[in-house]
Known about the structure:
25 helices; 37 strands
Amino acid sequence: MQQEHQPAMQEKYQPADLEVAAQEFWNRSGAALAVEDPLRPKYYCLSMFPYPSGKLHMGHVRNYTIGDVLARFHRMLGYNVLQPMGWDAFGMPAENAAIQNNVPPAQWTYANIDYMRTQLKRLGFAIDWQREIATCRPEYYRWEQWLFTRLYEQGLIYKRLGTVNWDPVDQTVLANEQVIDGRGWRSGALIEKREIPMYYMKITAYAEELLADLDQLDGWPEQVRVMQKNWIGKSTGVRFAFPYQLDGQPGELWVFTTRADTIMGVTFCAVAAEHALAAYAAARDPQIAAFVEECKQGGVAEADLATMEKKGMPTGIFVTHPLSGEQVEVWIGNYVLMGYGDGAVMAVPAHDERDFAFAKKYDLPIRQVIAVAGERFSLDGWQEWYADKQRGSCVNSGKYDGLGYATAIDAIAADLATRQLGEKKVQFRLRDWGISRQRYWGCPIPIIHCAACGDVPVPDQDLPVVLPEDVTITGAGSPLARMPEFYDCSCPQCGQPARRETDTMDTFVESSWYFLRYCCPDNDRAMVDERVAYWCQGGIDQYIGGIEHAILHLLYSRFWTKLMRDLGLFGDQPLGEPFARLLTQGMVVAPTFYREDSHGKKQWINPAEVDAVHDERGRASGASLRADGLPVVVGGIEKMSKSKNNGVDPQALIEQYGADTARLFIMFASPPDQSLEWSDAGVEGAFRFLKKVWRIVFEHVSAAGVAAIEAAEQEQRPAELKALRRQLHQTIGKVADDYGRRKQFNTAIAAVMELLNTYARIAGNSADNSAALRAVRQETLEAVTLMLYPIVPHVCEALYALLKPGHTAASAAFPKPDASALQQDEIELVLQINGKLRGSLRVPADADRASIEAAALACEAARKHLAGAAAKKLVVVPGRLVNIVA
Ligand code: ANZ
Ligand code: ZN
C-alpha cells in the first residue's frame, strides 16, 4: 500500500518542519531498508565509515551527501539499493580523550556514536540503519579474531621481531605520529627503538595478484591505481653476491640491482646502518659506531632518500667483485634502506644518481660503463642520459661491450648463475603488514602464550576474546597488561596456566572487511554468508571516500577480500576485488584569518567570527573581527583543519538553513573529486534557489481557473511551450547522464536552474492558466522535483506531494526523456548580409538548401538591408548560418 505523505501547503519554504516530516515519513515507510531480492539488480553504495571523533565535520557531510545522491538516484532507476553506515570505532583518539577527560574509551566512543548518528539522521541520508556496525562491538570483532586464528594456522599470520618506538618515561610504545622530532608527544622523552615480538600478515604473498588485478579496476581514478602500483613497487633485476673473507671466515654480501648491465662499473659497495657488516665494523671502531647510531636515529622516509644529503663512512672491509675479481671497499651509506632488497647496494657512481652524489662527496672513483651515441661523458655533473636504459650499450665492460640493456643483463645474470653467485629476481617494495599494537582500545589478538606449547590460537568456542570496557587509562602502557583478570588463562592445549596476549590489532584490520559485514550484520554463526554474494557480486558498485585512504586502506581491503576468498568464505561466487568503482572526493577548503601575537605567533581566527570584504572574484580581500571591529589578516585558502581554525561546523549550517541547503551547496559548489571552497555567499545562494523552487511550485499549484489572455500571445504559445518541453527533456537526459556516468552533480544542478529560468520566462505568468500551459507546467515541475530529489530530497518530497497528491518521490522513478519532445522541428540559423550579423532565421529542421535560400531572401531583415539590391550569391552552412552576398 502506498504510504501517504501529505504536508500542508505553505506559501513560504520552511525547511525545519518539512525536513522533520519527510524524515518521519521515510522512516515510517522503511524507504531506506535494503532487502535482498535476486529478481532486481542491486546497487551497493558504500561510503567510507567515520571514526567517531565527536561530531561530523564538513568532509563527512560532503562524503555522505555524494553517496546519498548516488544511492537515491539509483533507487529511482529501479535498482535495489544498499546504503549502510557504521563506525570505525577503535583507535588512539579514544585513549587520548580518556586520559584528558577521565572517561573510559568505550564510554567516550559510544557517546560520540550516538551524537554523530543523530547528525547523520538530521541530514536525511537514506541509510539502512538496521545494518549499522560499530567495530568495537564483540559481535563484530569476534569474526576478525576467528579469521586471525585461521590465518595463523595457515602461516599467513606469523610472529617475528619488529621495531617500535619506545617512550622510556611513559613506558609505552608510541605510534609514528606520536613521535615529534624524535621525542614522545606527551613525555617529551627521547624515543628509543626497541625490538619486540609482533604479529605480521603476509601481504607479500599476494603482492603479484594485488598488482595484476589493478588492471581490472577501470572504475578507479588512474591516480589511485598508480599510487597502489608504486606502493607495491615491483622491480625486476638481479640479486647477486660479493664474496669476502672476514676473520678467516668466508661470507657473501648480497645486493639487489635493476641495472646489472652496469656491474663492471662498480667502484664500491654501500650498506645500510643496520646491516650486519656495519655492525661488524661498528663493534671495532667507535667512530663507526657513532655514525651508525646517527643514521639509525634519522628514521628516513623513503621519499626523502633521493634528495637528502648523502652521508657515509668506510668500513675497511673489502669484498670481491664476482665477475672481475677486483677488491671493492664496503661503505656505510645513509641512503641505503635496510628494509629494501638486501639492505646493500653495488654502487655504480657513473650511472646511479645517488651513488654519483656519494662518490663526488667522498672522492671515490667513477667509471663509465654505459655509452650513448652522440652524448659525452663527463665527471663534472650528473647528466640524465647516464640513466638511459633504452639508448645505452656497455663499454669498458670486457666481454659485455656493445651489448644493450636487456641482452647485457641476460649475459651477466647467466655468468653470475654459473658461479652460483646470483640470479634474476623480482623484488617488491611492499612489506608484510605488522598488525600488533601495544594499545588498549583495539581488537584483542586471540593468542595464548603457554610455556610448554608456545603460541596457541584461542579455540573457536572461546571466541570472542572480549575487551574489558571498564578500565582506567593512565597513558603509561596498556591497562590490559595490568589486568590479571584479562591475561590470566589456561592453555587450550595442555591446560596449564598461561598468559593471554595483551596486544591489540591495528585498526586498519577492522576497516579491511566492514563492507562485507554490512551484508549480514546479524549473522552470529558466521563471518559472512550468501548475502555477500548478492550485494557484492561484480564488486561494490560505488565506493566513496577521501584520497588519504588511496594506499593503505584500499590495499588492505583488497588483500582481506582475497584472503577471505581463498578461505572459501564466498562460496561459489569468488569475489576478488571488493570495489568496482571508486570516487575520491576532494578536500573541503576555507579561507583563513589570523592575527599575530606579541611573539609573532599566528593566532588563527575562525571564519565564522569575522566579517570579510570580497573582491570581484569572490575572494576575501579584507576582514575584521566581529567582536572588536578591528582588522584581521587574510591568510590563504586551506584545507579545513583544527590547526588553522578554519573549520565550519556543519551543525550550525543545518540549524540555520536546513539539511537540503547544506546538501545543495556542497553538491553545487564543485565537482565531487575537486576541492570544495567554503563560502557563505554560496550557502545563501543555495538557500535562495530552494526558496525560488518552492515559490514556483506553490504558484503553480495554487493558481486556479482559466484566465483570459491576449489572442496574440495565445498564438505564440504552441511554439514556446514546445521549446520549453524540448529543453525539459534535454535537461532530463543531461541530468541522468551527469548523475550516472559523469558524476558531475554541479552541472546537473546548473542545467535544472537554466530550465527554471526558461520556465519563468515562458510559463511563469500565472495570469495565463490555460489547460495547455497547465499541462506543461505540471510536467516540468514534476520532473524538476524528481531531478533534484537525489540532492535535496526533503523539499522535493514535500513539493512532489503537492504536485501529485497521493504520490511520493521516495518511490517515484527517475523521469525519462520523451524522444518526441526532443525532436526539433524548427531550427534557428544565423543570418548574415555581406558577412555582417543581421539577425536570425527560423526554418524547418529538414529544410533543403533551395528553401533556406528562398526564406533568407524573403525575410524582413534581408528586404531592409539589401534595399532592393540583387543578391549575387548565397552561402549556406547547414544547421548554422546563411550569408547573403550582394
Ligand atoms: C646498481 C645501480 C646502477 C642501480 C645504476 C641503479 C642504477 P628499484 O627500481 O626501486 O627497485 N637499491 C637496491 N637496494 C637498495 C636499498 N636497500 N636502499 C637503497 N637503494 C637500493 O631500485 C633498485 C635500485 O635501487 C638498485 O639498482 C640499487 O641501485 C638500489 F646505474 O644497483 B641499483
Ligand atoms: Zn600448553
